[in-house]
Amino acid sequence: MIEAWMREGRVLINQKPAKLGDTMREQDEITVLDVDRTVLYRATLRGVWDEQSGKWLKRGFEYWAVNKPRGVLASTRDPHHKNMVTHLVPSAARVFPVGRLDKESEGLILLTSDGELCHRLTHPRFGVIKRYRVTLGWPVSRDTIAAVERGGVMLDDGPTLPVKVNVVSPRLLELSMREGRKREIRRIVEHFGYRVVRLVRVGFGPIQLGDLPQGKARELTSDEVAALRRAVKRPHQSVENRATERLNRRPASGRPGQSWGRRSSRSSARRAKRKGSRS
Q1: Is 102 designated active site?
Q2: What is the pTM of this model?
Q3: Which residue of 123, 128, 226, 254 has the smallest Cβ count within 10 Å?
């Protein structure tokens, strides 16, 4: 049936007649016309819209941006918490948050029903940049900024990657980072003896918070979804290299930075020594 409609010129891609063998891109829209040239259906990768009934015949994946207020949980399920970020999305689809944004933090969080894209956006090897505005309790020193930018700040789950720091004012910083470990910014700040007064995420990869009101959600455009896909098309090399280094430098108890290889060789030497003494 579709092939017959195409031969009759009733299938359009971006308002141009479609031909057999044409491929559909992220940003393309397909229009299906009736014999009298009125629009029957419009289709994108998001789904198929019936112009006659005004309803979706089939919905594809959904992609949302939300401005999360403080006190709202970035989770899909918590029996003891009524304020969850999924409640802010005006959709009946099952969407889930992309990555972390702790309860006390605010700002941009993405939600989607696309599990594959969500996995790539949150996987450390792709190193998608997240941007934050961080208000501190008191002015930050230049030495602290330099240490954060160099990376290698030793947290309880390993050293940090370098972080780009833009000083807006003595107490207000803009941080751009490729990692997304649990409460990482707060732990870095506390490591140097400072206190976070306010933490707002303003960007996730190519998506910006912009002027989206707090507590509100908007659907991403097809161009924004395409930009997200491009951002995770291939792993980020520096993140992969640093992740490998971190595994090789996992700290032993009381010996930060000691490599697994050195500890293994010393353990083997001790076992050989004990075996020799018994014989």
Answers
A1: yes
A2: 0.68
A3: 254
